Amino acid sequence: MGDAIVVTAEFRLDPEAVDTWLRLMLDHYGPACVAEHGMLRYWLHQDDGDPAHILLYEQWADRADFEASLNAAWRADYHADTEPLWAADRVMTTYRRIATPWEPLDGTGLPASLTTSAP
């Protein structure tokens, strides 16, 4: 396995399309993405001041798994269903992790603070 990567996608949606987009993502395309090989973390975040501004955060086991997922059969339907709801082009960025000694990692390479319960 290669180095884990993080992918973010920032969406600016038509304000009247937010509920439709969220329903598509929560009911169909989020679960399809989470089922992909190498998917470690999938989070959606909504801007407190602008509900039509959404950030998608994904963590992948490695770049090859992410790139393979871009060719998944469900992706064509995802683009057809969601792109008409965008007010602007999505901004997608990939990141590689910089080792930080102050955050302990668990056995899977995720921050221990995310995978262990508080006392």
UniProtKB/TrEMBL annotation:
Classification via SUPFAM superfamilies: Dimeric alpha+beta barrel (SSF54909)
Pfam families registered for this protein in UniProt: ABM
Signal peptide start-end: none
Residue ranges of domain ABM in the record: 5-95
Gene source species: Pseudonocardia adelaidensis
Gene3D superfamilies the record matches: 3.30.70.100
Coiled coil feature spans: none
Name of the protein in question: ABM domain-containing protein
InterPro entries assigned: ABM_dom, AI-2_Isomerase_LsrG, Dimeric_a/b-barrel
